Amino acid sequence: MTSPHRSPTPARPESSAAGTDANTFLVAGTRVSAPALAPGLHVVATPIGNLGDVTLRALETLAGADVIACEDTRMSRRLTERYGITTPLVPYHDHNGASARPKLLARLAAGHRIALISDAGTPLVSDPGFKLVVEAAEAGHTVHPVPGASALLAALVAAGLPTDCFLFDGFLPPKSGQRRNRLTALASVPATLVFYETGPRLAESLADLADRLGPRKAAVCRELTKAYEEVRRGDLATLAAHYGQAEAPRGEIVLVVGPPLEEAAGDATVDEALARALKDATLKDAVAAVTAMTGRPKREVYARALALSEGRAEDKAADD
User: Fold this and answer.
1) 36 and 143, same domain (yes or no)
2) Does residue 77 surpass a pLDDT of 50?
3) Which residues contact 50 (CB under 8 A, 6 or more apart)?
4) What confidence tier does 157 reach under pLDDT thresholds 50, 70, 90?
5) Does residue 11 fall inside a structural domain?
6) What is the structure's pLDDT at 261?
7) Which residues have CB under 8 Å from 91's CB, separation 6+?
């Protein structure tokens, strides 16, 4: 457990920000002093698009920290300049993590306050902050969560799909074969699935989702909280057809896929699904995926899978 945000703290080190604006921020044109910040690593959520979504506590933390560790200083400076925050920004990302982490950990050991942010949303959700948090915690430093915006949760609540149980799987593999194998493994999960995706890969990913998961309901959530926000809903095949004919969309994309359908499918549907799954999956994995997809009893699906496999073997022998 981390210590409470407002717990008594030792005297703060001198801020490296210059001028009288240090440790302050702007709210509606009024400069506000940030309260004393506890030492440690503060994991701060930032807006995913609309800068007005920042929380008051996030502003207090960013203004009161000794340094802000961020993925891209250019992106983060848009937020700090908007709210008049002068705390120094230092880059921390996948490419410099090995060299930057020891320096940040040394600051923590000296009693500094470090704010960790990502380019957008909540750090550690598909970003490089995880290793820093792990090493900081292992070294005995307090890790303070400062919650706020998350593209994952924003998409989930806008999609209109079940939210009581969901699984977030980050970015799908870029190659189709690996992506299909991953989706086959996820097909039996009895929950809503959430993925991040890029515009250029969206159509192919939707086609693979439709092929591996069947006629599930889904939503493509794009540019959430921004001027061109879009949520397109439909079954996976319909969405795949739409984006397959359209120009690759721009912006940040979150895919939300509903859980397996409850209605049991007919024999023809089961056979079609098995035929697709058996192309590049083991019998066991194909049965698990199709059982989850169709709602049919596992024993029945297994029997039909065996029949299909034996039929293919006989056809191959006849051809030889």
Assistant:
1) yes
2) yes
3) 225, 226
4) very high
5) no
6) 77
7) 69, 70, 71, 72, 73, 100
pLDDT at 311: 64
* Domain span at 62: 24-149
* 163 vs 144: CA distance, rounded Å: 27
Q: What pTM, to 2 d.p., does this model score?
A: 0.77
Rg of the chain (C-alpha set):
25
Among left, alpha and beta (phi > 0; psi -120 to 50; other), residue 221 is beta
Residues belonging to the chain = 320
Residue type, 116: L
Which parts of the chain fold into alpha helices (H)?
56-64, 73-82, 97-109, 130-138, 151-159, 176-186, 199-213, 236-245, 267-277, 283-294, 298-319
Return mean pLDDT, the chain.
Answer: 88
Sign of torsion over alpha carbons 152, 158, 59, 39:
negative
238 in any annotated domain: yes
Instruction: Tell me the helices (H) and strands (E) count for the chain, helix number first.
Output: 11, 12
3-state SS assignment for residue 246: coil
Whether the pLDDT of residue 247 is over 70: the answer is yes
Question: 3-class DSSP state for residue 116?
Answer: strand
Domain end among 106, 124, 149: 149
Q: Each residue of 178-235: pLDDT tens digit?
A: 999 999 899 889 999 999 999 999 999 999 999 889 889 999 999 999 999 999 999 9
Q: In the numeric block, which tokens belong to residue 56?
A: 């008051």
- The CATH number of whichever domain residue 164 belongs to comes to 3.30.950.10
Strands (E) in 214-259, as ranges, are: 217-222, 230-235, 253-257
Distance between CA atoms of residues 285 and 303, nearest Å? 14
Distance (Å, whole) CA 290 – CA 294: 6
